[in-house]
Amino acid sequence: MNVNHLRSKWAAVGAAVAVTLGAGGIGITHATTSSGEMPIYLPIEPCRLADTRPDSQVGDRGTPLGAAETYTLDGQGSVGNCTLPSGTTALSLNVTALDATAPTFVSLFPAGASLPVASHLNPLPGQGPTPNAVNVDLNGSGEFSIYNLQGTVNVIIDVVGVYDDHRHASDDIVDEAGIAFSNQLSEVEIDTTASVASSVSIRPPSDGYVNVRATAFWYSNTVGRQLRCQITDGTTTIDGSAGFVLDTDPEVGALGHQVSVEQTFAVDQYTGPTLFGQPFNLVCNASTGTVDMNDIHMTATFFPTSYAPFGIVLPLGAPDSGGIAD
Q1: How far apart are CA 302 and CA 176, in angstroms?
Q2: Residue 38: CA atoms inside 13 Å, Cβ hemisphere, count?
Q3: Of the candidates 44, 254, 21, 256, the residue with the CA atom closest to the CA atom of residue 134
């Protein structure tokens, strides 16, 4: 882990990513129509999976997490006070950190996977309970892990929903639409050549409109380096017109610096670019050198012809009508 990654852990990233996905790409509300595994979200009656406090222990552990410790838990079957489906591939959690003895960060990820570069909670000594909403993928054995950097800290883990192992066989579902989600948690390096950082697919049931939104965290090793992003309908070209943002890194390694972009596309189901789930792409490039992006979260939402939510969301960046500034 380089120094910029370590610095990113101390930023108040947890609050900013309260509803982002924990790891891996998983679908929410409706599965998309590409073939293969497409997990769908199922809310459940909240249950307590784990509580490491010795006086209120739930699960197999009644001691806090130690320094540089990884604690692995089951995400399927009977765990703590929960009974979770055997087909669960990911969990929607409320995670709370308490009693930290040193400034630290806590991250969740599939068991056996690499530690993510972004934290989920950032507890401090003397601080009250620190909660956050976290979605985390399970590994092939149905397990996930939680990591604590330093000192000791107790954690409470409640499950509020599961992602079920749902599969499509090519184009067998004709009218499924609504909302499609994707998440690219692992780091993506972006250079001066426009390239696809992430994508999302949705199959519209009729003519209408698809609204696509994307958010991401990014940083660079050079102050003032700029990132430019645009959502396109299958092309990797940034055309210098509508639908992009230009964002500047205010300091070296400032992960927690967020870029957000939105674009609406008219859809002709039979001749348009989104026929049978062709992806919409988040295309980005850097002004000079390279920048690193992660936690890229994309949504595609279908609307009927009678409604088109036009607009661009620019919470931290500003539009630019020309070329990339050096």
Answers
A1: 10
A2: 21
A3: 21
Torsion sign over Cα 101, 103, 109, 114: negative
Q: In which residue ranges of the chain is pLDDT below 70?
A: 1-39, 165-178, 205-206, 239-256, 268-278, 305-326
CB atoms within 10 A of CB 267: 25
Distances (CA, A) of 246 to 230, 293, 318, 322: 9, 14, 6, 10
Q: Is 15 helix (H, G, I), strand (E, B) or coil?
A: helix
DSSP conformation letters of 80-121: TTEEE-TTEEEEEEEEEEE--SSS--EEEEETTSPPPSS-SB
Tally of CB atoms within 10 A around 196: 15
Q: Which amino acid is at 249?
A: D
- Can you point out the beta strands (E) in the chain? 36-37, 40-51, 69-74, 77-79, 82-84, 88-98, 106-110, 130-137, 143-148, 154-164, 167-168, 179-184, 188-190, 195-200, 208-219, 226-232, 244-248, 257-267, 280-286, 291-304
CA–CA gap between residue 251 and residue 239 (Å, rounded):
28
d(CA 17, CA 22): 9
Per the structure block, which two tokens stand in for 87? Answer: 């087909």
Chain centroid to Cα 271, Å, comes to 31
Whether the model clears a pTM of 0.85, i.e. scores above it, the answer is: no
pLDDT tens digit string along 79-106? 999 999 887 889 999 999 999 999 999 9
Give the residue from 234, 259, 257, 268 showing the smallest Cα distance to 313: 259
